[in-house]
Amino acid sequence: MADLSASRASAVASHVAAAPKVAVADLGALPPRTRFVFRGREAAITAAGPAFGVALPREACRFAEAGDRRVLWLGPDEWLLTAPEGAGAAIVADLAAALAGLPHSLVDVSHRSLGIAVSGAMAARVINNGCPLDLGLEAFPVGMATRTVFGKAEIVLVRTAEMRFEIDVWRSFADYVWRFLEEARREFA
Amino acid sequence: MSGGFRLAAGGRIDRSRPLRFTFDGRSFRGFAGDTLASALIAEGVHLVGRSFKYHRPRGIVSAGADEPNALVGVGADEAHYTPNLRATQVELHDGLVAESQNRWPSLSFDVGAVNDLAAPLLPAGFYYKTFMWPQRAWTSFYEPKIRAAAGLGRAPGAADADRYTQHFAHCEVLVIGSGPAGLAAALAAAETGVRVILCDEQPEFGGSLLAEREAVIDGLPAADWAAAAVAELETRDNVTLLTRTTAFGYFPHNLIGLAERVTDHLGVRDPRLPRERLWQVRAAEVVIAAGAIERPIVFPENDRPGVMLADAARTYSNRYAAKPGERAVVFTAGDAGYRAALDLAAAGVTIAAIADLRPAATGALPARARAAGIDVRTATTVTGTRGRLRVSQAHLAAIKPDGSVGAAEAVPCDLVLMAGGATPSVHLFSQSRGKLGWNEALKAYVPESSVERERSAGACRGVYELGAVLADGYDKGSAAAKAAGATTAAASRSFAAKALDAGSDGFIGAAPHGRNPAFAKAFVDWQNDVTAKDIKLATREGFRSIEHIKRYTTTGMATDQGKTSNMNALGIVSDALKTPVTAIGLTTFRMPYTPTTFGIFAGHSRGALFDPVRTTPIHGWAAEQGAAFEDVSLWKRAHYFPHAGEDMHAAVARECLAVRRSVGIFDASTLGKIEVVGPDAAEFMNRMYTNAWAKLGVGRLRYGVMLREDGFVTDDGVVGRLAEDRFHVTTTTGGAPRVLQMMEDYLQTEWPDLDVWLTSTTEQWAVIAVQGPNARKVLEPLVEGIDLSPAALPHMSAATGTICGVPTRLFRVSFTGELGFEVNVPADLGRVVWEAIFAAGAPYGITPYGTETMHVLRAEKGYIIVGQETDGTATPDDVGLGWAVGKAKKDFVGKRSLARASMSAPGRKQLVGLLTQDPQVVLEEGAQIVADPAAPVPMPMVGHVTSSYASAVVGRSIALAMVKGGRARIGETLYVPMPGGTIPVTVTEPVFYDPKGERLDG
Q1: What's the average model confidence in pLDDT over B676-705?
Q2: Which of A104, A109, A179 is the closest to B764 by Cβ?
């Protein structure tokens, strides 16, 4: 039987193919990543950082990175761990070893959501068409990550650079979010 | 007429850019920078509409948002048509198409004008008094007729072709209005470095400064100073400048709604741009610099075309180089009328006379008017006008010391200007719930105390003198920035202003005229055709509160919300009741400040963006197969897969038989999934579900029932124990968010001590159900590391391994009553695995089936659907799930409620089956059931049909129902009364197929 495990289909593939190039508000699908939701008690939270390779940020709505791994603070006891595709098995093993006996939960959600990058001088402006947050650099600095809404969809919004945001959105809402972003950036095309 | 009223020089129009437009089909010319109103005035056109009730000819009254008369429909076609736009705010562009409203057959000859002759029959509240009998005629005759006759404008006949966008913005200081106060405020706030948004409803910043002829600020003509101030603001990165942007609503917590008109002023529109953009601005501090509106004066026949506000006439002349007439009579209650007279005289308008209501006029402006040789008459009123489609005479009469009015003198004129004094624009302040206070000296309500973080500056708080306005604006802008946390202070700038001050004298109420009040139509509210007589009638009929008078007479209730009329109405009531204005009350100012399109509120939410359409990873495959879809919450689910020539009934019958006889494949990806993980996971499950979980072995599945605290079934689903500390919970499709929220709520508020956590995995997994006697044969060649044999994987058990190389959680579970499996694979791989299974099933005729077939199959087995068999008042026992309640359990959500006597009382509705006596008859879901069809109406009802289908495998119709004491009625005959006749039914067990469950093992 053929091995189909490398035949991933992105929920926004057709949009990506048709997307125009807009320098001031560019849209792109991010490569698939491994994602885990980590939740737990204090001892596990402390121990999880070294095991994953990135200390879990304790400041609300911030993310931390080391190498190609990233941890997003999503709640007082909830983090989203992300790593390149294929790292899942190792992460499960590493954390299981480090957290043995420490109450926690680690759940693979790699396919639950996908990433969209919005970049360019008008990136914040485009996102503000559907997101009510203050995206000024002071209120939403580089390094910030938060759950929020975009139109009628829930997203996780991450600022990776002054003019670059990443949106993490559940698979079935991705079509809506992409279409909305296209509509919002149309005036900058 | 060919531009005969365009001044040869001056104004802010761009004479190098001539434009053509049409009004009521006639072609006219104007210039860039004109409004529709200014261009019409320059062409000598004042008659632009007919009034609402009496169809009287009406002209342009104002030059701005306060316009009550000049409402026009604009748009070259129905898809771009907007009714009821104020011509004074419609920017001219080449090719603009406008039409007048409320007239037939034409503007100059309108049949509806007979209403004017019938005016004695149409007093205030006439429809309350006239159309009372017979009562039934109200809905069938009076109301439709009145509605047809009453509307203003017409709705466009085609869908709106334009796009609208919405934008959220934040700033430290929002300045609303860009007259002298607003510009100064913006300059001050901008200097501190905080984020500033300055908005103005006009196409150009500057407000009243754009209409000044003589005023000088810092050595520059006022308009040039404004341009310099804007240029300075433009250089700052921290300032956002928005012209053509109306602040229409002040919402709680300093959320301000701005309507930006992006493309209406463009002859050729850029398709990338939206027509309008909604700005929802959250401002730390707001400076309201909304200016003031000039009050008209209430005198008989003050509504003829050619009667307009003095300041508006000045604006047309100074700003638009459009001369509003040749010979003007100015009726004033303060010095503002003199300023207008002097400006118009400078433009070549003959000032026939200035009638001043005051006994004396001693200021600098009256002195200049007298020096210019203008006939100034103090203690003088206007008692009426003449002229059919344009004013031709004004009747001036002296007011004697005893208050009586002397004989009138007819003064020929084509223009009558009204200067009743300034009314501060407190609309936004009032919307912010700020408290207004009456200022007797100004005869005006002004902001008194704030609720939101805002402050008013300039004329909107009764400060009128230019130097004082600039200082006030700068002060307020500086204070706002500081309050918003600015770390640097604004420089202390001062402005040297030189302007003629018109003071603050004014008049409210109705001017004396000495005529028989029964025959004098002195208009208070032009748009709703309310006269001073109507308001006095209301007071005679016993109305005291302005809120009641407003609704009875409709004054102030038109689209202009009484911008020009409210204060005069108050004055008239005050005079009639001999009561101070402050004792009469003030009507509430409501959003929007000016009418706002529906499109801007809909914004992006049209078409594909109306709501998210959630689709599964397998959706594309189903669409390619020609599946019909149904909406289940936001999801699109394949409903059935029709072959050519099949209707739903035929397709479903075929799909059902395929599952029963061989194998079917079904996309169950929308099922809610929650991963419950932690050392206390089993304990948590024990508390949330009625079932007992502690003894559920790893690798086993169990059907779980969840209750609300009131003991009623709220959700169900199959739960797999993947490890000692890990459960894979499924929920109904629609219940997924609700169940997760309820679980999280209990965890956080009731049991924070439990070491267990919840993660939604609904979208992590695609779920492929393979059901039917051949299901195992289809899957067996595809899986690795999983033994599908009945011994290794019995019904209700789970295994992990791979399928086609893809990691899977494979469940042996059935919602059809057949041998069945549910293959969970990571979502992005759902479709390729589905296609692989489908290909492997070809030798068995594997048949894709949709939700309708799924419903029929489970109904044949008597499996309930939460939300279909249950309605929020069903206990587990009611729906035959008593077996799922762990009787020995110490506690679970809803347990105590189940112990209430009523929850086990006889006569509760219970799940049963129904078989119609005629097997071809399919009952209607929701139909009521009675025991005695001969009982008098209303018949006592004993239950209702919850599910009903034609079953191919049973060979007849089947139905599930909730019937009072149903289990004890099995074998009885009941009746379903329907419009086409009563249908007798037999009560049965709710399982119609394979009651012993032998087919689960294939």
Answers
A1: 96
A2: A109
